[in-house]
Amino acid sequence: MGTDWNLDLAVLPNELKMLLLLVKNESEGSKTPLVEEQFYGTDWNLFLELARHHRVYPYIFNQVKTMDSFVPAYVIQELRHEYQRNTFHMLRLSGEMEQFCKLLSDNEIKVLLLKGPALAADLYGDLSKRTCSDLDVLISIDDLEHTHELLESGGYVRDEYFSTVLNDWKWRHHHMTYFHPQKKIKLEIHWKLNPGPSFEPAFNELWARKRLSTLTSSPVYMLGHEDLFMFLVSHGARHGWSRLRWLLDMDRILRIHHGWGRLGFLLKKYQLKHVGGQALLLSSELLGTPMPMEFSSLAASKRAKQLAQETLFYIKQMIHLHNEPLPDDVARYHKRHLFNLMSFQLKLLHVLSFLYPYPMDVEIMPLPKSLHFLYFPLRPFLWIWRKTRKQAWL
């Protein structure tokens, strides 16, 4: 790897190390036969729990089923059930994805697929090898209202999961969630790649670098390779790489794609060099991913190493960041880690963003909408009042 540094993997449970071994072996084409001695003392219930949490069970299933001489039958049976269930789910999502993209295309709305079945086909060459709970798509913010009308007419219901004031949703948030009660399918409509404040390409720039997916008969489009790399890096880092599936995506894109063109320039432009280095280190150390020579300097930076080591906090504990409220220690750690991920400019913008009114200010002091601009000068006083009231309750 060109560095004299390694992750401290002693903090990881043996069952997770076994899982990493299977993932690495699969990525390398199962060239090294795994033997019973490597799995002595394995807690197979914990192994199953880890495989489910990290969403890598469909990737390792073909290997595990050949290890029936020493892997308990119930483990293979459970993984087979999960594998088959996921395959059917991905096929359903693939059909819905094609219908949705055609609907938007027929209404002259440009749409880019972020994850889902198209990503599975692109990186894994097989729908059944990657899990996906929903469909994630990116559109221009100018097309949100029209898309909302189309989804509602098709039976989707929007999940109003956040409040807003003075249109802060446009930059503080990055997607809205829809759910189809009959189809049982969740759809996330993104107008940005990441929540704000953030630096990222404009939609038209992403559209200009799009790729055509080979998964469907009607045309559906994906992010270009460089943009997909940046998205996977920023998304995984924001979630602490708490699921190995996201790191496995990095492994796949690095193994199948070569010649990164302007990626170094783009990582620098959007202030993601250190986050890219974190992802490269984690993928190399945990999954044995070959590191492109042009990226070795990213992984060699002191900051990338620190961020990579911090990530093991999430991986070893099976932390699910969407299960709120988070335990206090996890919430504090995650808040600090997110801040550490920011560039200096983003940290400054993040601090300044606290001066912009929050929906909770409206709850504390309701004002007519025409007077919402007053929340700007009132913001410091409302913040102090809320903190004082919180301390009084403790």
UniProtKB/TrEMBL annotation:
The name this protein goes by in its record: Renal dipeptidase
